[in-house]
Amino acid sequence: MGRQGILIVVSGFSGAGKGTVMKGLMDRYGSYALSVSATTRPPRPGEVEGKAYFFKTREEFEQMIADGALIEYAQYVDNYYGTPRAYVEQQLSEGRDVILEIEIQGARKVREQFPEAVLLFVTAKDLPTLRSRLTGRGTEPPEVIAQRLCRAAQESEGIEEYDYLVINDDLDACVEEIHGIIESEHRKISRNKDFIHQIREELEVFSKGE
Amino acid sequence: MGRQGILIVVSGFSGAGKGTVMKGLMDRYGSYALSVSATTRPPRPGEVEGKAYFFKTREEFEQMIADGALIEYAQYVDNYYGTPRAYVEQQLSEGRDVILEIEIQGARKVREQFPEAVLLFVTAKDLPTLRSRLTGRGTEPPEVIAQRLCRAAQESEGIEEYDYLVINDDLDACVEEIHGIIESEHRKISRNKDFIHQIREELEVFSKGE
Question: Which of A149, A189, B55, B137 would suit a FRET pair with A198, their CA atoms being 20 to 30 Å apart?
Fold first, then answer.
């Protein structure tokens, strides 16, 4: 049976180590397709077009919005960030699981358009760990820490809209956990309708033949 | 955070090897509690009370029904079979995952009473395999084969009421798949409400304190 690709959204607290987890997942499992965002932010030194981001002018980005070429987009500090639709849809249609690392607002947009998407929220293993990651070594200015805390509080508001809570304590364990969740999702009855339909038809034909 | 036990129902086609898979799961992971059915069927040689079944008289069994002491029960060929409630509820409350190997009618009853139960349907890897398991070596009388096919066709009717379709091709892989599904279920947002509630509260207190 041909396996359908699953769209996986990964969000989580800043400081929960999402980036490292994503890298670990991509390094260990070549089967996943990582969606690359488009942005109007200028490239930083070392950032490669199509790797870190697809770099666009404001005009190009706004044309993509107008064309419906983005699944979701948002503006942060005067720059646009968004998920190009074509890559995601092509990979899914080829049966690959596609991973998007985006924030809650984007996750909501994805869910609207891809109701079968799987939404993961990554968190630190417990409150002291989360707190220490948010406050850092105490060397940052209080306003930076205050901003991070405020953001984490906002992020925590939307957790119930996600499907799974993933703990990032040990990196390897976290990568395995995410892979395990995706494998389990592939076993969902709703994702195996063709196989079930086929078995049922065959059993019917077969019963009549005996 | 204290982890809540999950009630797991395993059903599947006769001949899909459910029994072997259950044994493999229990052997490999000591953490699961396997529910033992009560029955009015007389013990067969070698069957140990409380291991194979809890053996009951018809009067005792009917008293259990009257007392609501069974989560589900059914009658096959003049004998009652049922799932004692006390063991299941005790194990769950202690945080253990409990496994029930029952048929679709029983699975429905479990779902009514335990909406958070996880229902797995075990199947052979493909139709030729299922067919060869159902027909055996061709040495059985045609009426036995016809009966098996009829039963499999009936069993296939209810598959959509399950949550996951598990393929039993390689035994080890199948055991790992089931274990993986249960682990993933533990990561569901709906099963981690206390943790989420705690994080949110702490973040709030913490933000205000800064």
Answer: B137
Is A156 within a domain?
Answer: yes
- The answer to whether B100 touches B10, Cβ cutoff 8 Å, is yes
Q: In this predicted model, what pLDDT tens digit does every residue of A142-194 receive, in sequence order? A: 788 778 878 888 888 899 999 999 989 999 999 999 999 999 999 999 999 99
Is A76 domain-assigned?
no
Burial degree of A1 (CB within 10 A; 0-12, 13-18, 19+): exposed
d(CA A176, CA A170): 10
pLDDT tens, position by position, B38-83: 999 999 999 999 998 999 999 999 999 999 999 999 998 899 999 9
* Chain B contact for A163 (CB, 8 A cutoff): yes
Residue from the list B149, B181, B202 with its beta carbon closest to the beta carbon of A127: B202
Q: Does B184 reach chain A within 8 Å, measured CB to CB?
A: yes
Q: Which two tokens stand for residue A196?
A: 């079930």
Provide φ and ψ at A44, rounded to 5°. Answer: -90, 160
Tell me the ipTM for this assembly: 0.90
SS3 A45: coil
Look at residue B59 and tell me if it is in a domain.
no
Of A159, A183, A189, the CB nearest to B196: A159
Q: Residue A154 is inside which H or E element, if any?
A: helix A142-157
The pairing of strands B97-101 and B32-34 is: parallel
Contact by Cβ (8 Å): B199, A127: yes
